[in-house]
Amino acid sequence: MFRYRWLLFAVICLTFTSCISNKDKRRPPNILFAISDDQGFPHASAYGANFVETPGFDHIAEEGLIFNNVYCAAPQCSPNRASILTGRYLWQNSEAGTHASLFPAHLKVFTDRFIEGGYDVGSTGKTWSPGLIDSTNRIVNKKLIGKYFNTEDQTGYWKEFQKFLHERDKEKPFFFWFGTYDPHRPYQAGSGLDSGKRLEDVDVPPYLPDSEAVRSDFLDYALRIERFDCNLVKMIGILEAMGELDHTLIIVTSDNGMPFPRAKGNAYDAGVRVPMAIRWGDQIPSGYVMDDLISHIDFAPTLLDAAHLPQYDEIEGKSFLELLLQPDPAKRKPFRKALFYGRERATSARPNNFGYPVRTIRTEQYQLVWNLKPDRFPAGDRFNESEAIVVKNEILNQKELNFRTRKMYDDAYGLRPEFELYDMSVDPFGLDNLAEDQAYWKVFDRLFTMLKKQLIDNEDPRLHGEGDVWESYPRFMGIRNFNGEYPAHRGVYNEHFIQSGQRIPLYLLDSKDYSNYFEETGITKDIYIERLKSKGAILY
User: 175: exposed, middle or buried (C-beta count within 10 Å: 0-12, 13-18, 19+)?
Assistant: First the structure.
């Protein structure tokens, strides 16, 4: 009898333990989303970059997964961050698809679902910016990522995370966005060298001058990556001390490529390919190096899946949750055959505040770049899109030395052909354009057909006869005077490029920017409204 009672007790215990285990596995995860600002691939020590030390990133990679082919939707901060939040390509995000413009209230963001689903949502540092969130017309989640915890101390973001954890409802799972302004420029020249870093540890890509000044600039950049990582290390430690580390899905990535010529702001690999590592306790295997193509628009559906929350129809991205659960490439199909990215206006760099529109398709082997306005300079008429002053000066000073330095200048700042095709398997930096090579015409046609279909299906205004709408969108930062025919004004929709059916928030017309515009031009608010309406604009 005792034996049977013991067996029954054992079965009950096993069943109870199994139920606890299954319940724990079904528990919605906490999520820490850590995103740096301008950190390009492969600039983390886990990738073998010797000039930078990233123990936080490396810890996540070692105990989780590290990714080699993660691509942004745009090579600048605010349009790509908008794509992360919406799960959509920049050409689907209206004003938010360009830099420092408006984040319209009609755009759905995945963090809304988290709030609706019972998550505590918070953020610190750089969230979606620069630009203006239409918080007037957004009913909830007016700052896009829950409660904002602010600090001016770039080394103290971990303290804001700690405050969030202290204030949150402990019965709820949390989503926390840790953004940063590192390693965005400007840098303190020579700070990397002063910290003990060595020039010889830098690998300078072949499209930049390999000089002491350039290497030193890379070291300054590395020092700022390490400040981001230092915050991450402390956040990991906080989670571990709380006993929440293994219940937290941690994603570490960057918002665009490194801030150097032909990188950030350019729809090439160097502008959009970024580091990524993911850890999730025992929910996902560790030790795999992932080579699948992944887009930043895939974060929204993946995070919603991981949290057992419903998707919304507008999402364009694909969930890669199954890839995380089964990372072994021998046991599954590749995640994507192709992905897409592009850009519009990056800063005030041309007459009329014009942008430099590009659309790109990337497969495992090829990159096809479509420069839709090849008569415009990619870095602006006065190189205003090039923030890397030290490196820019090196390129300018050396451009007439020989053919190689001249090509380096042309690749960075010269006019570009309408199409660029690169075989990245043999030309990993994308420097040998094959678009006019007859041997690659079939490849070109196949990729261009795929690219056009994607853009048409997504209703990209550039392919539907409404491309000028991108030139109409306001910029909520300074605008340089280039003496254009239709000059732009800060925070103002440029009436000359308004499209029929375009929606414009009426309250903006009472802003300080519009007051300045009306005063400078002598146009009255009533006349401006009539002009907008005559073009079919909808004011709401």
Answer: buried
- Residue 464 has which token pair? 């539907």
pLDDT by 10-residue block (mean), the chain, 540 residues:
34 36 65 98 98 98 98 98 98 98 98 98 98 96 97 97 97 97 98 98 98 98 98 98 98 98 98 98 96 98 98 98 96 96 96 97 98 97 91 96 96 98 98 98 98 98 97 97 93 98 98 98 98 98
Give residue for tokens 């810890």.
59
The H-or-E segment that residue 290 falls in is: strand 288-290
User: Is-above-0.70 flag for pTM?
Assistant: yes
Q: Nearest CA to 128 among 73, 72, 79?
A: 79
The residues with which 65 forms a beta bridge, in sequence order, are 278, 288
- Angle in degrees, 0-180, between the axes of helices 157-167 and 212-242, rounded to the nearest 10: 20
| Residue 357: domain span | 342-463
My answer on whether 171 and 310 are in the same domain is: yes
Residue 102: other Cβ atoms inside 10 A: 23
Q: Is residue 353 part of a domain?
A: yes
The number of folded domains in the chain is 3
204 is a domain residue: no
Among 281, 309, 332, where does a domain finish? 332
How is residue 64 written in tokens?
Answer: 């989780």
Shared domain for 328 and 383, answered yes or no, is no
Dihedral sign for Cα atoms in the order 424, 277, 39, 105 = positive
